[in-house]
Amino acid sequence: MATQTHSLSYAGCNFLRQRLVLSTLSGRPVKIRKIRARDDNPGLRGTTLYYQPGLLYGGSLEHDCSVLRGIGYYLESLLCLAPFMKHPLKIILRGVTNDQVDPSVDVLKATALPLLKQFGIDGESFELKIVRRGMPPGGGGEVLFSCPVRKVLKPIQLTDPGKIKRIRGMAYSVRVSPQMANRIVDSARSILNKFIPDIYIYTDHMKGVNSGKSPGFGLSLVAETTSGTFLSAELASNPQGQGAAVLPEDLGRNCAKLLLEEIYRGGCVDSTNQSLALLLMTLGQQDVSKVLLGPLSPYTIEFLRHLKSFFQIMFKIETKPCGEELKGGDKVLLTCVGIGFSNLSKTLK
Amino acid sequence: MATMESWDQKKHRKKHSGPKAEKKKKRHLQDLQLGDEEDARKRNPRAFAVQSAVRMARSFHRTQDLKTKKHHIPVVDRTPLEPPPIVVVVMGPPKVGKSTLIQCLIRNFTRQKLTEIRGPVTIVSGKKRRLTIIECGCDINMMIDLAKVADLVLMLIDASFGFEMETFEFLNICQVHGFPKIMGVLTHLDSFKHNKQLKKTKKRLKHRFWTEVYPGAKLFYLSGMVHGEYQNQEIHNLGRFITVMKFRPLTWQTSHPYLLADRMEDLTNPEDIRTNVKCDRKVSLYGYLRGAHLKNKSQVHMPGVGDFGVSDVSFLPDPCALPEQQKKRCLNEKEKLVYAPLSGVGGVLYDKDAVYVDLGGSHGFQAPEEAGPTQELVQSLISTHSTIDAKMASSRVTLFSDSKPLGSEDIDNQGLWMPKEEKQMDVKTGRVRRKAIFGDEDESGESDDEDDGEMSEDDIDDEEVEEEGDADMAEKCMTVRGVKRQKLEELDEDSEVDVPAFADSDDDLERSSGDEEAEEADESSDDEDSAAGGERSVSDPKAVGEGGKVGLAAASHASDHLNLGKSLPTKNVALTTADSGHCTAEEAFGSEDESEEGSSLSSQEEGSESEEVPRGKLAEPSQAGRRWTPGSENLASETSDIEDLLKEEEEYTEEKSYSTETSGALKWKEDLSRKAAEAFLRQQQAAPNLRKLIYGTVTEDNEEEEGDPREELGGLFRVSQPDRGCKHKADSLDCSRFPVEAPHDWDLEEVMNSIRDCFVTGKWEEDKDAAKILAEDEELYGDFEDLETGDVHKGKSGPDTQIEDVAEEKEELDPSAEETAKKKHLDKKRKLKELFDAEYDEGESTYFDDLKGEMQKQAQLNRAEFEDQDDEARVQYEGFRPGMYVRIELENVPCEFVLNFDPHYPVILGGLGNSEGNVGYVQMRLKKHRWYKKILKSRDPIIFSVGWRRFQTIPLYYIEDHNGRQRLLKYTPQHMHCGATFWGPITPQGTGFLAVQSVSGVMPDFRIAATGVVLDLDKSIKIVKKLKLTGFPYKIFKNTSFIKGMFNSALEVAKFEGAVIRTVSGIRGQIKKALRAPEGAFRASFEDKLLMSDIVFMRTWYPVSIPAFYNPVTSLLKPLGEKDTWSGMRTTGQLRLAQGIKLKPNKDSLYKPILRQRKHFNSLHIPKALQKALPFKNKPKTQAKAGKVPKDRVRPAVIREPHERKIRALLDALSTVHSQKMRKAKEQRHLHNKEHLRAKQKEEEEKLKRQKDLRKKLFRMQGQKDPGKKLKAEEDGQTRRRPSQARSSLRRRRSRAGSTRRSCVPPSRQETVPGLGKTLSTAQGILRPGLRWGMAVG
Predict the structure, then answer these.
(1) Which ipTM did the prediction report?
(2) Strand, helix or coil at B1110?
(3) What contacts B165, CB < 8 A, 6 or more positions away?
(4) Is residue A236 less than 8 Å (CB to CB) from chain B?
(5) Residue A15 domain boundaries
(6) I need a surface site. Which of A233, B527, B1032, B1209 has the fewest CB within 10 A?
(7) Does the reported pTM lie above 0.90?
(8) CB nearest A261 (choices: B703, B730, B744)
């Protein structure tokens, strides 16, 4: 009787990851119907998915990701699940490391990992290593992600984003001239130098086996603040054979502008990791957690709704107007009380 | 006299304290010439000097260790500001005085006497503390459940009897489920006649209690009884102890919400019950929430019933509130509240007087209403209710049009109004009254109430007549609601605003989501309010109805008037069910629909209704005036809300153009996105809009997306339309990136400036700007005095101080200026000191202190974060916080729960965490309880109590071998931990559990079978049991043999290639390869040649599957009086016993007395010839060695006298003669004999010769007669020789085999051979010849 009301039901393929992740963590089965029901080629064998979660096992794994989406697509879900495994996760993912759709591995490494550290997920084995780079459409990249296991998470109070003290970046190029990266760096610096002098953009030109299967280049920028907040922006070149060729100068300049946009949005967590921060706040102890965010992305908004239906948790949302200060746009302060989640997979010794 | 002597004999005792002792000590010190110093360390410092650095270090370590040992891991203190009442469980064996103690305690705290106590009783015990007292009997179900919710256990012990098993059982249960505070209470102390015996008993019991709980645990003594009650002073002391007691948070309790229900109502639609008595019920439970925050729609477990999803939660005003002002020292009489609805105190439903009066006799009280409403009661209830519905539907318009004092605005207000319920104490009767008061009365307080009281005295008759005459007050409130609904509908049509999502105020929205998510915010909140209003309005006349006889009169009058022919109890029931009206909104809808269809029932009622209305008018003004007078501040806020509402409506006037059908999916979506865009730009209004954008439009039930939502929601709402809008993006790309839609032009200076301050290069805040902080420091620390030189350095003082300094110098005479300067100086000093203090204190801080500080900070934040918000909003964010009095609705509750409700049994709702509602594999560490007499068997069903649950399951016990293999155990070890795994509900690791074999009846022995802790929650371990495969050689080469019978196919053999095999006699070998000829045969090589008689076996491990059996103990569903008789699945042993089936043992397994043949050894015989040939050393030494004769044995030489010598010589001579004579005689006789023998032989020979001749003659004659006889006789002689030959050859063979085996088998293995042989033979015994697996486990 109870199991009937226990499971949740959704329609459509969007937010599939959210639903599966939350279903796994909350232990509630989920049914997703009408997955691309109208399409002639839905891409699946059926249009309905029923997911009954179990317990997370972890351990050493390898997975070949689809080249249609970046590794970031998979990593984002893994970041949510990895701390709650039975054994520490150590996974090798193969596929596209940097593309134009998903947050790249570089950005996740620079922003999501420090965020997880705020929640007490830390240790020697906590790392994300880019072994090979792979650009779309060919892929061929390889990433090693390992994460320790935690029983409980710490509550956070991230209300002061601090001031940006440095900007770091990574200009990468594979199977193109190594000069591309340098050109990107110069153009990006030209814009950012107006704000802060402490800028260093690494160039990363991978060769041979490590350069994947397709040519491409790109830039990811990260701004670090005095209170340990990381804001990021990134841009990648068009995949081979799709769209017009992109000039590295333009790419650098646009990416720098994107970073300025991100800074304008502000907050203590950058826009891609909003949902991750909110999830970990929800899964904290029964204490108050606070986080200051920039404008909520549509993905985050949907995530908040999902959090409500899976965990019955509602966030207190306060808008902080920008006012007179020259600190970018409006901010949103989100507050919640954790549900007192504990890792049921971890063995008691 | 005797006593006098004993006194005299007593020794003098020196004083150890007091002035006399001190004086003496001083004198002693003076005698020693040590002066006044008492501290030896100071007096004689040398004696305490460091002698050894190592010892010093050790002692330092030790003190540090002891210090650290005292630390507990700091936890965040999550107790709410207004904590729930403390649960005091009074436990003890029967007839120990539990009920008496509870009654005495209640009387002590509240000055009230409860005659019959059923279920929990909540009382206010002090300014900051309330107690919920509950009695615990000896049913193990009840003991387990109550141990999980107890904060304090009063453990009653009959001192005249001593400890009883229940006490120890309960202690053990408590230990497993987090140890609550336990206080022992000794009763029956008056049964001791001798004081000495009493003292001894007390001491004995105290020390036993201490060993069980902890040394120094408080044990209370209740000596004698006065008039059937304990002595006042003792009870008072006990009460004091309870009131000041401090509690440690228990892990399970603080991490889970739970509720000890003190009231239960059945909300099932009577129609459903009428059609099917056994239908699942809808039930609401009331109680204080405890532990953690409870979220709506979460999962709960009701021990004894099962798992449920909470269908709705709402909080109610505290029925037993703490006093408001805290200034006084003690409570006044009015504040000493008691609340025990199940016992008939304080609640509406089980209100004492009402029940008495309405049931018309004390016998009605005997049968508890909630315990089991009888069939006819239910029937009559149904009929009443349906008429009410019909009536309500038909009469609403009439009432609305007629009731002039209730204008349309008033009704509107009424909807927004939330009346408060207040408990009042009638000073004269000591009863608690539940009175509905409204916002305006809040401030005016007591005087208003009194006025009301007076007025009600006057109005009682009128009101009673009017309201009861209306058949029911509930009907009235429903009518009001109905009217309002209609009005709202009209409003919708008129304005055509899509108010639902945005036009409402913040609070309303929050309120709404608790109720029905799918409903539009505005409407739903109104509904709820009106419903709540309805309840108040019902409770109001109820409070009046408490007036005893008047109530009776009124009731009877009403029944007469109505002439409905209904029995009085029915009426009461109807009233009570309607009382919970505010949750039956759905029902109301339903009935509304019915009425629209036009039910024939209503017409009759309509008439009476219309009659009633004018009469009702008389009482209406006063009532209405009391009820609907606009409140001062609440109303103001409400009106402002309305203003907001209107304002926002104006803002979105353009949306008015959307008609109901055009406000479809697309439009809605456009609307949303536009607003979302605006939300980020706007400032103040943005907050609620953003929240609504996220939560407001999302319905909880996604199932409702399908189908026509209008039908499901009563044809009123269209909220799921935005969801439909969402469907457009339902199939879009799943990406977390947030692309920039309208990028800024970052080349523009002003755009660039907008983020200037985000960088360290920008401007800093006041409190962080380095320059400012530096300046402040200068001001604070600027001037200092050099103590050595005496110079005073002046800092650069601010302009104001400088002026003052100047002034100081110039006008030194001005006293005021001097004073201010001085003050300033002092201030500065104080500040410095504070800073220093703070720094100093922090400087000493350890990791532990830091952690503690962090936790404290978090606790403060937790408290402060939602403090300023009202409860409605708070509930949305943090859930229902502990301490609230809540009402929880559950659906699909088995009907037995309601039908067999027994208030004596605790009803607990335990909240479940995430995935705790799921069922899976659980592993635990288990130990059989040392007092339990039997051992536990694997696969025997057993009842576990884990978390909130009690359930029966089939565990498998296992133990981990040294190599990490988990080996199945048939039985639990006696005094050791073992593992256990079962299929059951998932409970977090580290949770304690206990196991009992049965929860039914009373067993003579200790009932708790095992205890332990949950370790793991998945199927990660593999439990295995031993499996032996046997085979037989069919062909033997030298060391290679062909074995058959072990496997069935070549494939199986292939799987086991290389596996180690062995024969029973201990010859080891290996499987080589499968053979073609008989299926499953293989070639194997051994370390020695096998015999055909050998049995070959292989030891393997076979994984065991865990039976998926999970059966919750549903003891609360059992009929009254049989709650302790739940019995689930029976063990095979029990079944066998019941069915009389005897197990047939395997013959080979039976033990028989072992008969051993005695071994007989022949003496060793060495032939003489051989003996002669042997060298000397090997020659058998037959004669014993002539050892030295010991001296005492040596006979002394005899020296004879001459006389004796003569005699001796004579005797010698005589004997020589005699012997000579004898020899001669013997020779002669010998010769004679020889002679005689020779003669006899001669005679014999002659005789034989004669006989021979005679035989010869005879044979010759016979031979001539038949010739074949002689031949046969010869043959017989040959056959007789043969068997002996065979026997000897066999013996030879055997000895050879034995010797070879002995040579190849190590001695230790040799010993095991018989055992193994036995096992194998057993195994073979099991097997039928056709079977391939030989199995022997052990």
Answers:
(1) 0.91
(2) strand
(3) B1005, B1006, B1007
(4) no
(5) 1-54
(6) B1209
(7) no
(8) B744
